[in-house]
Specification:
By secondary structure, this protein is of the alpha/beta class. Helix content is 30%, strand content 25%. The protein folds into two domains: 14-152, 3-Layer(aba) Sandwich (Rossmann fold), CATH 3.40.50.620; 183-300, Elongation Factor Tu (Ef-tu), domain 3, CATH 2.40.30.30. The radius of gyration is 22 Å and the shape is elongated.
């Protein structure tokens, strides 16, 4: 058997092991993790979570700009759901070429008591391994398998692809229902030309976000920003500023209730709550400024939902 370095070295024998990419840690993932945690408590052992990076689809299909949560946030969510140990398996073409039986044998070598997976979990070359194979091989190697049923909202299976579909049309309410929490971005404030402040008189914090994350469609959004332990209503702009002649897409935050300094390097969490309009090209700066004033007035009149923080 080919030797692929698995990251399970620290796994305690007899642990409950939950396996998945967990992109988004949405309601389906949360159900799986609750079932796994219940098992761990019943067995009086730890809940270990095995996840993967990069996302297999980044290698298999060359997918880009599609992750729902950055890895740090994903790990935080897993810990909140009761994980005692999180192991991230780095994957590549060689790892993805493992035969399903080889994949299971690697896991079996660490002697888990239970392996918890989604009912539709697939693994190994060509995703040819499934829950039935995992259970069959578990009987051989001495561990039990718990395939967790799919979670549905409005008759549809909750999935990361369904969440991205909602985000792509600005349906943040549906995204929240699928995730179980408001969709958000985390970014670091960077210094750019500051044209919004210098030319238009509306200061913005320009955010740098992980380029692997889902690319927010161009437009103007209502957001809630968490900064220095406080929440702020904000306008969030995603786009290339065509009226200003720029060609690099930016993500900018304009605070509606805060006028202080937001230092370079500050980390902001930005919840996206409502899409206000599409990106527009204006004939001149006067028209653009009038539209921004209209956006601000509209945003100020919208009552934010109670924070779920």
């Amino acid at each position: 058997m080919r030797k692929i370095k698995f990251v399970l070295t620290g796994l305690r024998e007899g642990s409950v092991l939950a396996i998945g990419v967990f992109d988004g840690v949405h309601l389906g993932h949360q159900l799986l993790l609750r079932k796994a945690k219940d098992l761990a408590e019943k067995e009086r052992t730890i809940l270990a979570v095995l996840t993967f990076s990069p996302h297999p689809e980044e290698i298999l299909r060359g997918e880009r700009n599609f992750l729902i949560l950055p890895e740090e946030e994903r790990k935080n969510k897993l810990l909140q759901m009761g994980a005692d140990l999180i192991m991230t398996q780095k994957i590549d073409d060689s790892f993805l070429s493992l035969e399903p039986a080889e994949f299971v044998e690697e896991i079996a070598a660490f002697n888990p008591a239970w392996v918890v997976i989604g009912k539709d979990f697939h693994f190994g070359r060509g995703k040819s391994g499934d829950a039935n194979l995992m259970r069959k091989m578990g009987n051989k190697f001495g561990f039990k398998v718990y395939p967790v049923p799919l979670y549905e909202v409005n008759g549809k299976k909750v999935s990361s692809s369904l969440i991205r579909e909602a985000l792509s049309i600005g349906d943040f309410e549906m995204a929240r229902k699928l995730l179980g929490f408001p969709y958000y971005l985390v970014g670091e404030v960077e210094r750019r030309k500051g044209l919004a402040s210098k030319v238009l008189g509306y200061p913005t914090a320009n955010l740098s976000v992980d380029e692997r994350l889902f690319s927010l469609p161009s437009g103007v959004y209502l957001g809630r920003v968490f900064f220095q332990g406080k929440e702020h209503k904000s306008l969030v702009y995603s786009g290339t500023s065509p009226t200003l002649g720029l060609d690099q897409k930016a993500l900018e935050v304009h605070f509606l209730d805060f006028k202080g300094e937001v230092p370079k390097g500050s980390k902001l969490k930005v919840e996206l709550l409502k899409k206000l309009r599409e990106e527009m090209h204006f004939s001149n700066l006067k028209e653009l400024k009038e539209q921004i004033e209209s956006d601000i007035a509209r945003a100020k009149n919208i009552e934010l939902p109670i924070s779920e923080r």
